[in-house]
Fold this sequence. Notes:
Belongs to the carbohydrate kinase PfkB family. The protein is an alpha/beta fold. The protein has one domain: Ribokinase (UDP-N-acetylmuramoyl-L-alanine:D-glutamate ligase), CATH 3.40.1190.
Amino acid sequence: MTQKNRVVTITLNPAYDMTGALADLKLGQVNQIQTGQINPAGKGINVARVLSDLGAQVTVTGFMGADNSASFEQLFQDINAQDQFVRIPGVTRTNVKLVEKNKRVSDINFPGIHVTTDDVDKLEITLFKLAKTHDYFVLAGSIPPGFPPERCTAWIEKLQRLGKKVFFDSSSDALKAGIVSKPWFIKPNIDELSQLMGQQFNSVEECYSVITSPNLINIENIVVSLGEQGVIWLNQGQILRAVPPKMNVISTVGAGDTFVAGFCWGVMQEMPKHDLLRFATALSALAVTKINVGLDNSKNQSQIESKTTVTEYDIACHQLNPDKRGEIR
C-alpha cells in the first residue's frame, strides 16, 4: 500500500557544496573569500529538503562515500528523511561554488566517487523495494563515474510500468539516456534543451515550438526553465507559462531543485494546473533570495504567488492567452 505524500528522491552523485563569496573572481590570481560555508548537497537531496519542509514523508537514496557521510546523515535526521543510501568505500566529492558581488556564480564540479556494477545492483534492489510503498520518485542530478546511463533508462521504464510517477531532472548523457524511457516529468533549462536537441535556442518563442517536437512526444510533462523569465510547461498539448515578480537575487543555487519539489508537492496535493505552476514558480523565485536551500517564510511565499502570472500559449495562433484552470493528468 502506498501513501499520498510519500516520495523517494534519488541522488546518484551527491556532493559537499563549498560556497564562497567574493567581490570579483580573478582568473590566474589568488582570490580572497569573504564568507564561506560547506553543506551536504546534491539535486535530489535539495529536492528532499524542500519536500520535507512542505510536509512530505521523504526517503532519500543513491550512492554515498562511507568515509565522510556524517554531515549527510545529520541532515537526513534534521529533515526527518529515511536514509536508504548505498554506502561505497571512499569519500563523497566536494564541489566549489564561487559567488561574486554581481551575483555571477562559477561552479567547479568534481566527477564523484566511482561506482561498481555491484554498487549499481544494490541500489536497484533498494529502489524497487521502495517502489512497493511509494508512488512518486524524483531522479535528479549527474551520474558518477562507472554508472552506465542506460540504467537510468531501464529504471525509469520499470518504475513507470509499475504505475509510478518519475520526475527526472538531469543533464548531458544522463538526460539523453533518460528521455528515451519517456519520464513522466523532465525539467531542462534552456541550455540543456539546446544541447539535447542539438540546436541553439535564443528566444522563448523558439522553445514553444521545440517542446512540441516529435523527439519529446509522449513525455507527459515538459518544463523548460528560463531563469528570471519564468518557466514553460507543456502538458497534454497545453502550454502554460509562469513568470514570477522581479526578485532580489542572492543566489540561484537550488532554485531549480526547489521548483521540482514544489511541482511534485503540487501534483501530490492534486492542485489544479494553474495553481500548481504558480505555486512551484513562486517557491523557486523565493529560493533565489537566500543562500540555503529550504523554506522559511510562508508569508513571503504567498505574496510572491499573488504576483506570479500564469498564461496559456495558443499553439495555433502563436500567442499567450489567459489560462483556463485544468486538472493535471
